[in-house]
Amino acid sequence: MKLCILDNDILEGALAATYTSFGAMFIRLFEEAGAQWTTEVFNTQLGQYPASFDPYDAVLLTGSGADSFSDDAWVVELRRQVTGLLLARKKMVGVCFGHQLIALCMGAPVGRAPQGWGAGRMVYDWHRTDLPYCEDRAEIALLASHQDQVFALPPGATLVASSAFCPVAAFTVADEVFCIQPHPEFDEAFSRHLLDKRSHILGPDIHSAGHDSLHQGHEGAHIARMVVAFLENPASAN
Predict the structure, then answer these.
(1) Coil, strand, or helix at residue 235?
(2) What are the sequence ranges of the domains in the chain?
(3) Handedness of CA 100, 148, 46, 95 (dihedral sign)
(4) What is the tens place of the pLDDT at every residue in 112-171?
(5) Options 146, 179, 185, 219, the catalytic residue
(6) 0.90 surpassed by pTM
(7) Of 99, 146, 183, 211, which is the active-site residue?
(8) Of 157, 70, 44, which Cα lies nearest the Cα of 106?
(9) Cα 146 to the chain's mean position, in Å?
(10) Is 185 a catalytic residue?
(11) Would residue 183 show up in a list of annotated catalytic residues for this protein?
């Protein structure tokens, strides 16, 4: 299988030295889940896209510090590209910003969450036990970092995960699109860095609770196995 990763952020400093990029984090995550794929990474903030998406079996959109509804030129172009991919029924995965942007392109409302930042380890109710490796799953714990949310399911989507804090935490569209708000590619150190970086925004209570939550572990590896199986399952014919 050939995967195209549209990397929507640029890591700097210590994060770049340790993790390289969001694209590199996803490559490692999927390799650890057993994927044996050819993967190419393009940075959308730098205007990088493949000449054609036709050679790729699937496209993944990473997170970003930007807003999916921004008028920044690179975000506008990304929405244009994703709208075309949706029309072509290309298999796609969206994570955090990618989740929000795909939902927005499908017509869902997206914006600042009135309840504020989601940060640290969060637990979500799981609604699709028919997905791979999810037969006995009722909930899942993942690492999150976001101030925007998808407020309602896009037309034609099925709810996969939710919580009181984040009602649309994950959704699918048939066997073509899987989108999720939290970050399966994060590890505790990455999440801790973001909590500390935003401590002045989060406030002491959310910052402290986020730090404490990281000791409980997360299930990013489980989501990775599920996504690998989801992408490797042939999509329905157009």
Answers:
(1) coil
(2) 2-232
(3) negative
(4) 999 888 889 999 999 999 999 999 999 999 999 999 999 999 999 999 999 999 999 999
(5) 185
(6) yes
(7) 183
(8) 157
(9) 11
(10) yes
(11) yes
